[in-house]
Write a structure and sequence with these properties.
eight-stranded mixed sheet; two-stranded antiparallel sheet; alpha/beta
């Protein structure tokens, strides 16, 4: 039995490094000792996304050759969001140039940018009758500006086609390219989100191609503009309470306006294991702390992801 009396089953331990020369997330199994994997608590059990609305949206997206982060990252809220007729669009393909140890998006060499992608995105927004659009992307370190110009084009086109539609974008770090960031700020989305994802002591190991300080700097630059800044992170990797509170403080220090905190859920056995499932009351406490520290809007809960209830924030 684990902490709190939850049932546990044995599993191989996670080694200190992963082989990155081939299949995404393939763990090296030599000399692995027995470990344990926590069973999910009841508050994390959600219905599968098989409703009529889900099938309709899947069909629309497939017909326009569009991807959603909901599907690619196996988001636990996919059923709820699809049933409400909303989705977070994933542009620039579905293959990421980075390989974070918690992420279920495919890693490898991306394909060329689809020249019709922006037009297809506009069509999907119209067909789905969306009033709030969230656009994100895989990380494209292979592109000179990291895809910033494509983000800017999407925002500009949506403004032209549907001026009343709110637009939120979730961007990568653009490898600390300030000119790239200025492109997306100049496009005037309503919100720019950049997720910290994990606490500082675990950042280098879980996000080896990222940089904690670069991400904070990017958020500070967004906060200094006229665009609303937003960030999010997950807990359950093995961080301490002090680590989590420090990350909240770090985001406060760069004047981040909106925040999401969610439970990490291991996508497959190839990914980083869950160290703890936080109780909903613990998420509520972090939410209250974040509000006390000055955030304008906070979503904190076991099933929260960065785009969860995004349209509700005002």
């Amino acid at each position: 039995m684990g902490e709190g009396g939850e049932k546990i089953i044995p599993r191989p331990s996670i080694p200190s490094h992963r082989w990155r020369g081939g299949t995404k997330g393939t763990f090296m199994n030599e000399r692995q000792s027995a470990k344990q994997i926590l069973r999910k608590p009841p508050w994390l059990k959600v219905r599968p996304p098989y409703s009529h609305e889900c099938r309709s949206i899947r069909s629309t997206l497939a017909g326009l050759r569009l991807h959603t982060v909901c599907q690619e990252a196996a988001c636990p809220n996919m059923a709820e969001c699809f049933a409400c007729g909303t989705a977070t669009f994933l542009i620039m393909g579905n293959i990421c140039t980075r390989d974070c140890l918690y992420c279920n998006v495919e890693h490898g060499r991306p394909e060329a940018i689809d020249e019709n992608e922006v037009n297809n995105l506009i069509d999907a927004v119209r067909k789905m009758k969306l009033e709030y659009v969230v656009i994100t992307s895989v990380t494209r370190d292979d592109l000179p500006d990291g895809g910033a110009s494509i983000f800017a084009d999407c925002v500009g086109r949506l403004r032209e086609e549907n001026p009343s539609c709110k637009v939120e974008i979730l961007i990568p770090d653009f490898q600390d390219n300030q000119a790239a960031l200025e492109k997306v700020i100049a496009a005037r989305p309503d919100v720019i989100n950049h997720n910290m994802e994990v606490v500082k002591p675990m950042f280098a190991r879980l996000r080896p191609q990222g940089n904690y300080d670069v991400s904070l700097k990017l958020l500070q630059n967004i906060s200094s503009s006229s665009v609303i800044s937003k960030s999010g992170f997950m807990i359950g990797f093995g961080e301490s309470r002090e680590d989590t509170l420090q990350l909240i403080d770090d985001l406060v220090s760069v004047s981040c306006a909106r925040l999401t905190i969610g439970q990490y859920q291991q996508p497959t056995l190839k990914h980083w294991p869950v160290a703890k499932y936080y109780h909903p009351d613990e998420f509520a406490e972090f939410k209250e702390i974040a509000y006390q520290k000055g955030f304008q809007y906070v979503e904190s809960g076991p099933l929260v992801r960065s785009s969860y209830h995004a349209a509700m924030a005002r």
